[in-house]
Amino acid sequence: MMKALGLEGIVATETALSLVDGERGELVYRGWRAKELASQYTFEEVVYLLWMGHLPNQEEADHFRQKWSQNRFLSFSLCQLLEGLPREMGMMDTLRTAVSSQAQGQGLWPPNKEDALAILAQVPSIIAYRYHFLQNSSLPKVRTDLSHTAYFLYLLYGKEPEPALARALDAYFILTVEHGLNASTFAARVVTSTRSDIYSSLTAAIGAMKGPLHGGAPSEVEGMLDQIGDISQATEWIRHRIIAGDKLMGFGHRIYKTNDPRAQALRNVAKELAGEEKRFRLALEVESIALDLLQELKPGRKIYTNVEYYASVVLSAVGLPTELYTPAFTASRIAGWCAHIFEQAEVDRIIRPQSEYIGPLPK
Ligand code: ACO
């Protein structure tokens, strides 16, 4: 049987973008704790920090925001593409195809910030356009005065969101924008290392993000909470799943062997937003039961709640339909992928690891 190596513990690159400290439970973006950024800064400012290396002053922030919001329009050909894709195609597949379709023309190497900003600004519009098309409703008029996350909610619901909802989504975006060499970021860097274009790198990253072991988890958490339904069922349901060898969605992490700092910060965001709601109380109780059972049935594995667990509660509280959870995660992480794409392009060395052959040799 083949060993499942999973590149665990392998350092594949240096990065100045983020520190993921799995022992101490710390996540740092360019010297700033992510949870502090999430409570004090906007998503736009954090993207600026990742791309430019420092937090913007007022003038830089205004200029960046202005350029960002001017990129919100979708071209006629992109709208046609979004209408022409099969209706049963999922949102992540749609997004992957839409991003891929933007790779046109020459001179796409090295990747540049103008192209990155254009695609980052358009992701909410792409998601919302397709969402309304499938619902036979219409996309609201473009607005340039709203923040990235407020605009996303505005596009989906056709009205300006409550500030508390936009703020909660902003915190979620900040906490999920960047996370070291996770699977989708690694995919983006591998493609960039071949000097391919930014659209190809982002297309690969979206493909990786879609998987249920990575970005697909929040909707699976939602499904898990739905299936548990009532707290009286939780112990039996969870015990049965662990014994059957199933993974509990929203638990476990390759790097964090203590609390995931993002999960803790999102728990607070969820509490502020939906502290009185049945869903939040169910999530809290399921977490506590699951952690006890994991300790009993998987001793020594150090399994804690990961970012996806409370992401599902926050995204549900801001009113997002379940099928848009992973696309929303993508709308934030795409900015982190771009930062890695710029960094990898500077390194400019092809990523090409080795495999150990375990098959037969020729006679
Ligand atoms: N539920 C139950 N058991 C678990 C879980 C879980 N969620 N996660 C790990 N384990 C157990 C495994 O069964 C294994 O037990 P064993 O030693 O008896 O075989 C042990 O812990 C080690 O698990 P691995 O699968 O080897 O851990 P790995 O580092 O490969 O996986 C991963 C990490 C993929 C996140 C895993 O924990 C998982 O599948 N979790 C559920 C999916 C999820 O929530 N994904 C989101 C991750 S965060 C993100 O991507 C943004």
UniProtKB/TrEMBL annotation:
InterPro entries: Citrate_synth-like_lrg_a-sub, Citrate_synth-like_sm_a-sub, Citrate_synthase, Citrate_synthase_AS, Citrate_synthase_bac-typ, Citrate_synthase_sf. It catalyses: oxaloacetate + acetyl-CoA + H2O = citrate + CoA + H(+). Transmembrane segments: none annotated. The active site is at 253, 308. Keywords: Transferase. GO terms for biological process: carbohydrate metabolic process; tricarboxylic acid cycle. GO terms for molecular function: citrate synthase activity. One of its GO terms (cellular component) is cytosol. The keyword Transferase applies. It comes from the Bacteria. SUPFAM superfamilies: Citrate synthase. It holds the Pfam family Citrate_synt. Pathway: Carbohydrate metabolism; tricarboxylic acid cycle. Belongs to the citrate synthase family. This is Citrate synthase. The lineage of its organism: Bacteria, Bacillati, Bacillota, Bacilli, Bacillales.
